[in-house]
Design brief:
By secondary structure, this protein is α+β, with helices and mostly antiparallel strands. It contains 21 helices and 19 strands. A 5-stranded mixed β-sheet has the order 2-3-6-5-4. The chain has a 3-stranded antiparallel β-sheet with strand order 11-12-13. A 3-stranded antiparallel β-sheet has the order 17-18-19.
Length: 595
């Protein structure tokens, strides 16, 4: 195997001659309109729309220790918001979230827009990954990006009317008229779905060659969900591959803005539905940051143990299905059997399996049950030797190596430009794991190594996940041996619901329980982002509270969304069979892409 284990020390910000805020003010003057304080401490600057592209370009190319990754790009409809003291007036806000590996810090650039002038210059010339993000903002908010190469809907059908993340767009089905599909409307929508190569940036022919166009998906086992790729082929060679997403879009962010802070937790489970409570993790951390809630040590360790068990469960699904995509039938039966062993522990602890929705604001739903420790200890004795068998079954298989080595490779610079995180980033030699670089939720107290590889191909992306399962088992073992005493949930007044023993003690606490669960806690106004090292990369929640019982804005930054943008980069010049290997190696689920 080509992976190496490199201990990942925590990096610290390296400041240049000027702090970044002072540097931008000196460079761009009045174009920097205001500096906003946020709960997460990320430097947040409001800039003019005319200089926004110049400022983000400066941050990527010209500042010392640059912000090389466009981590996220999203928007907020501000028209119904009341708590905006110190922020420039505007009906909508576009947000650029940038990440610097050298500094180990982020910066947030905000641009205020008026409803009558919803347009900004595109930054696709600065970051190729901005393509899908800008299309998403156009699709859901109606904000245009001038100079974008292909500004059309991305998550909603082409004939859709309206922009759903606007506050004046209905949030519930009961707010719409009764659905009907007259014949003329059906024909118009079918025609809108007709494939025209030119509209997708493809040519029908080149010289004496007529290209063939092939639909892979949107319903095909090898695309791992409802996902479509339109292939432009010259024989078996891929000339171009255009991903088409949105078939699994369920308006998760819109739902988050009409659920109470507490009742949205089960929805998070359904984002990366293979990672269970790991989806709860960034959401509750972000709420706790806004609310100022400290989580007890015991709850921290319980959370980490369950998150790492779900990392193992998710990686087992990846390994089995990846091998199956390449024609090996045996591994998927073995890996799913071992996943059932993990789910056996999860069910005993949480009462649920795939979607236990078990984390709570301030801790977890209940304490560990009697008998949990022997189950975990038995699994930890069984699992590492099992991983050795998987290595023999896959990496020593000549066909597996031939199908994966050198296939779908990209460089570290390309990975950063396209927003890759997690194993997809570490597979090309970038030593970056948020558990090490920015420890959250108590990870700083655990010892584990960060697997790295160098080639950035399908083989290395698979190797890394095998090694990551070893490290996850190592972390779970430390949780088992070091589980601290104490409470499983904070006593903070905004913790929802209160601990059961307190709920049944007096009527006042029972009333708090009722109000907290039915109406939801009143979270102070503020903004916060927390991202974690999820199984497929960095998963984060950007939450805006307007001082109410529901979030004002819920932004879900998922790893799979930028990863699928890289498919054309990885597949051009290869064969259709290579594309199947590439798709499996990415390790994505469409709910994580479409939300």
């Amino acid at each position: 195997m080509s992976a190496t284990l490199v201990p990942g020390p925590i990096a610290h910000e390296r400041t240049g001659p000027l702090p970044i805020v002072d540097e931008l003010r000196a460079q761009f003057g009045d174009a920097v309109r205001a500096v906003q304080a946020t709960c997460d401490g990320v430097p947040t600057l409001w800039v003019t729309k005319e200089r926004a592209r110049d400022i983000v370009r400066h941050l990527k190319y010209e500042t010392r220790s640059p912000y090389r990754m466009l981590y996220d790009l999203t928007a907020i409809d501000e028209r119904n918001r009341t708590h905006r003291r110190g922020q420039p007036a505007g009906d909508f806000t576009v947000i650029y979230h940038l990440l610097s590996f050298d500094r180990n810090t982020d910066i947030r650039i905000k641009v205020a827009l008026d409803d009558g002038d919803l347009a900004l210059p595109s930054i696709t010339s600065v970051w190729p990954s901005a393509n899908w993000y800008e299309r998403e903002v156009w699709d859901l908010f109606g904000i245009a990006f001038e100079g974008h190469p292909d500004l059309r809907r991305i998550l909603l059908p082409p004939a859709w009317v309206g922009h759903p993340l606007r506050k004046d767009y209905p949030a519930r089905a009961t707010e719409f008229e009764v659905y009907s599909l007259p014949e003329d409307k059906e024909e118009a929508e079918q025609e809108a779905l007709r494939f025209h190569p030119e509209a997708w940036g493809m040519r029908r022919a080149h010289g004496a060659t007529d290209f063939m166009f092939l639909n892979l998906g949107p319903n095909h086992p090898s695309v791992h969900g409802v996902f479509r790729i339109v292939l432009q082929l010259d024989g078996e060679e891929i000339v171009d591959a255009v991903p088409d997403i949105g078939y699994h879009h369920r308006a998760a962010e819109k739902m988050g803005e009409r659920q109470s802070w507490h009742t949205f937790i089960p929805y998070t489970d359904r984002i990366d539905y293979l990672s269970g409570v790991m989806n709860n993790f960034p959401y509750v951390l972000a709420v706790e940051q806004v609310a100022g809630i400290d989580v007890p040590d015991r709850a921290k360790v319980i959370r980490i143990m369950m998150a790492e068990l779900f990392r193992i469960a998710s990686h087992l699904v990846f390994l089995g299905t990846f091998a199956q995509d390449l024609g090996a039938m045996s591994p998927v039966f073995f890996t799913f059997n071992d996943r059932e062993r993990v789910f056996g522990i999860v069910e005993v602890v949480c009462g649920g399996r795939m979607h236990p929705s078990w984390f709570r604001i301030g801790g977890v739903a209940q304490d560990l049950p009697e008998g949990w420790a022997p189950l975990v200890r038995e699994f930890l004795a069984y699992f590492p030797p099992r991983l050795d068998e998987y290595e023999k079954l896959t990496f020593r298989n000549r066909i597996f190596r031939q199908r994966t080595r050198g296939v779908g490779a990209y460089t570290a610079d390309e990975a950063i430009d396209w927003g890759a995180t997690g194993p997809g980033l570490r597979a090309c030699g970038v030593d970056w794991d948020f558990r090490k670089k920015r420890p959250y939720g108590g990870y700083e107290q655990f010892e584990f190594d960060i697997p790295l590889a160098q080639n950035g191909d399908c083989y290395d992306r698979c190797v890394l996940r095998i090694e990551e399962m070893r490290q996850s088992a190592r972390i779970v073992g430390q949780c088992l041996e070091r589980m601290p005493p104490g409470h499983y949930k904070s006593d903070h007044a905004l913790t929802t619901p209160p601990r059961k023993e307190r709920t049944m003690h007096d009527i006042e606490t029972l009333i708090d329980h009722f109000l907290g669960v039915s109406w939801g806690p009143v979270i102070p106004s503020g903004e916060s982002f927390v991202g974690i090292e999820a199984s497929k990369g960095n998963n984060g929640y950007y939450l805006v509270s307007d001082g109410g019982t529901m979030p004002y804005r819920v932004r879900i930054r998922t790893p799979s969304f930028p990863h699928l943008q890289m498919i054309p980069l990885m597949s051009r010049g290869l064969s259709v069979a290579d594309l199947i290997a590439i798709l499996g190696s990415i390790d994505f689920v469409m709910a994580d892409v479409d939300r």
